[in-house]
Specification:
With 212 residues, the protein is mainly beta. The chain is built from one helix and 16 strands. It comes from Paenibacillus taihuensis.
Length: 212
């Protein structure tokens, strides 16, 4: 970590990286490979909110060569018989759906992967945000799905100035019909819908995604 460095000397990229860790989430991640090496390389954080529970894994490669990481879905509330959507936070891309375990190949030497693990749902739902490492743990105040109106609605808490991208998964049986979020841009992608909130300045933003 570099948050003990002299902040005025940090590059903008480093400051942006630090901002994604703030505010601090009140719960701690736990090591999955304790006592297996001098430095734990696999960490798992369970994120609990009023609207959902999901997991964020941090995979640190301390070695001089690229390596793979595996995580079994058998602890901290993860269920081996459930299907989970996997998302790569730093690269902002989906890694598919997994059951029982996941394997993340080719993590470069002295690199780190941050992976979101969310239960697969039969309706549109949040997949990730690029705003905070928890990907919704501190920046989403509310999220709900209404089956009758086929509407996904939520409140984004803009804790700092800048922009944010919210990525939603959309099953093939749904199609986006309209979006209600003033000042936001959206893009339909293979994984679903990306909603970009611009001009954040500490205020909350409500959003609705309506489907057919």
């Amino acid at each position: 970590m570099f948050n003990g460095d002299e902040l005025p000397a940090l590059t903008q990229d480093r400051l942006d990286l630090l901002a994604k860790m703030l505010p601090l989430y009140p719960k701690q991640a736990r090591p999955l490979d304790l006592y297996e090496s001098n430095f734990s390389s696999k960490w798992l954080l369970r994120v609990d909110t009023s609207f959902d529970t999901w997991w964020v894994a941090a995979l640190f490669n301390w070695e001089e060569e690229a390596r793979s990481f595996s995580i079994r879905f058998d602890s901290d509330g993860l269920k081996p018989d459930r299907r989970y959507r996997i998302y790569d936070f730093w690269n902002q891309r989906p890694l598919g759906i997994a059951r029982g375990s996941i394997t993340i190949p080719g993590v470069a030497s002295h690199d780190c992967k941050v992976i979101a693990i969310r239960e697969n749902r039969p309706h549109p739902w949040l997949l990730s945000t690029d705003y905070h490492l928890t990907q919704g743990g501190v920046e989403l105040g509310q999220l709900s799905w209404d089956e009758e109106s086929l509407t996904l609605s939520g409140v984004f808490i803009g804790r700092r100035a800048g922009n944010a991208v919210l990525t939603f998964t959309v099953p093939e049986t749904y199609a986006i019909r309209a979006i209600d979020c003033p000042g936001a841009a959206h893009q339909v992608t293979e994984e679903g819908v990306r909603l970009e909130l611009t001009g954040l300045g500490g205020e909350d933003r409500s959003f609705k995604l309506m489907f057919a």
